[in-house]
Amino acid sequence: MALRKLWLLTMTQVLFIITLSPESIEACKRNIELNGCLASSKVETHLADARVYMLTHPKEFDVIDLDPYGSPSSFLDSAVQSIADGGLLMCTATDMPVLCGGCTEVCYSKYGSYPIRAKYCHEMALRILLACIESHANRYKRYIVPILSVQMDFYIRVFVRIFTSASAMNTTLLKLSYIFQCNGCDSFHLQSLGRIITKNNRGKYAPGSGPVVPQECSNCGGKFSMGGPMWSAPIHDQEWVASVLQNVKSMKDKYPAYKKILAVLTATSEELPDVPLFVNLHSLSATLKCTPPSARIMRSALVNSGYGVSGSHVDPVGLKTDAPMHVIWDILRCWVKNNPVETHHQNQYGIAILSKEPVLHADFSSPVTPQGRSQRKEPRFIPNPEKHWGPKIRAGRKIESKHTSSLGPKRMSD
């Protein structure tokens, strides 16, 4: 994988491959020989602990790519110190069960954040990782600027630039939030860690004002679970994403995975940049036990109500919107009036929501100027390339019958 980046190097740049695995070093050396004299002069392999190596080379690397098997958390402190000012840090995490709420205490110990197990958990995983990187950077008067953050297949990957500025670092409190998730319905609310107050014509940082929710959900009466902190500022640089998307299209023949890259970048470029997380149409409808409206109908109602809306690159039926939760439930109340549900199938939370009359009367007609999705015909989500697609077992482990689900029966028989 590292040799794929060789063609990006300038005349004076060198690619360092650092690993503790002797087998990996030998494989890298064989690949370097196969790639000729250019690779031999531009690529260096080091059998060493990457954490120690980065610590002994402060602010030296222009680009660092962390791609471990599992969690990158143990490498982050070294990486944010080793990267040059304005440099690019690329980071992959494959421990999705941890980041998505399957092992909450492990997530807190590794990333310093408590995850919520909800439909938006994969995007929250991205935001937890960004908050963790920011936390490590702040210890050295540095801060991050995310340019692309994506969830693909069975992992997440973020691209951030690292800068040094004590004054800019102070704004971190405005970029982090706790989340309150209702246990009865899909309502969630964000609580910012900090705010700016003006005093004597000067801005001053203060703790966030709250709480943003009562003891019980105002929509269904359920209790709240609390998670975070997580990154609540934009996770993409939309101009940068648009530029990369254009470049990818112009060089489509050079990318074997062109369709996958195009789908992810297209979906990412259409997301509302300043709306953390999303709601899932099917999950909202399941609470009310009603037939879900189509994404087009829901988008129309939100746009006609004066709110922004877009899709999510994480979930095909996810909707990002700046509409508050009570507006979303009002729209669904109006939808249920036109598409009645069988009352004996409802749960207590759905009954509580539908027992209230909508304050907003939704208009489901198509707006004159649609929002949230361009008219381009590129797919946003494509099928997996093969059956049993997913993470494989860690290198060096003995393959047993319990690994059938990840490898597939055919490979097990081989």
Automatic annotation (TrEMBL):
Record's keyword annotation contains Chaperone: no
Keywords on record: Methyltransferase, RNA-binding, S-adenosyl-L-methionine, Signal, Transferase, tRNA processing, tRNA-binding
Annotated region described as Disordered, given as residue ranges: 364-414
Biased composition, class Basic and acidic residues, residue ranges: 375-389
Signal peptide: 1-27
Keyword Coiled coil recorded: no
MF terms (GO), sorted A to Z: tRNA (guanine) methyltransferase activity; tRNA binding
Gene Ontology annotations of biological process type: tRNA N2-guanine methylation
PROSITE patterns registered for this protein in UniProt: SAM_MT_TRM1
CDD domains for the chain: AdoMet_MTases (cd02440)
PANTHER family in UniProt: N 2 ,N 2 -DIMETHYLGUANOSINE TRNA METHYLTRANSFERASE, TRNA (GUANINE(26)-N(2))-DIMETHYLTRANSFERASE
Protein family according to the UniProt entry: Belongs to the class I-like SAM-binding methyltransferase superfamily. Trm1 family.
Name of the protein this chain belongs to: tRNA (Guanine(26)-N(2))-dimethyltransferase 2
Species: Canna indica (Indian-shot)
Lineage: Eukaryota, Viridiplantae, Streptophyta, Embryophyta, Tracheophyta
